[in-house]
Amino acid sequence: MSDTDSQIKSEIDGADVVLFMKGTPVFPQCGFSGQVVQILSHIGVPFKGVNVLEDDALRDGIKTYSNWPTIPQLYVKGEFVGGCDIIREMFEEGELRPYLTEKGISLLSDEG
Fold first, then answer.
1. For a 10 Å CB count at each end of the chain, is N or C smaller?
2. What are phi and psi of 48, to 5 degrees?
3. 49-108 pLDDT, tens digit each
4. Where are the domains of the chain?
5. Cis before residue 25, ω within 30 degrees of 0?
6. pTM: predicted TM-score of the whole model, two decimal places
């Protein structure tokens, strides 16, 4: 396992919900990352944002790690869930909140 893989695994293991994104949750630097942050914030999911723009090895490594070509990437309890399109679709179909609840994630808000 490379240092980058170890770093990625450590981030994923360190929080129940981890979003590998461009920018930060407070200041997303790409529209897709921003959309996922908005969705997670809207349904009250506590999550950790990992800014891939700060580290080229991480930016490339996460794509290899997940075998997924794009960023953002959402992990829940160590499991890769998907990128922006998948998260948005799950949200619009009303599947995201039940999925997170099933995984044992406590949501901060019960609206939506």
1. N
2. -105, 130
3. 999 999 999 999 999 999 999 999 999 999 999 999 999 999 999 999 999 999 999 998
4. 3-102
5. no
6. 0.94
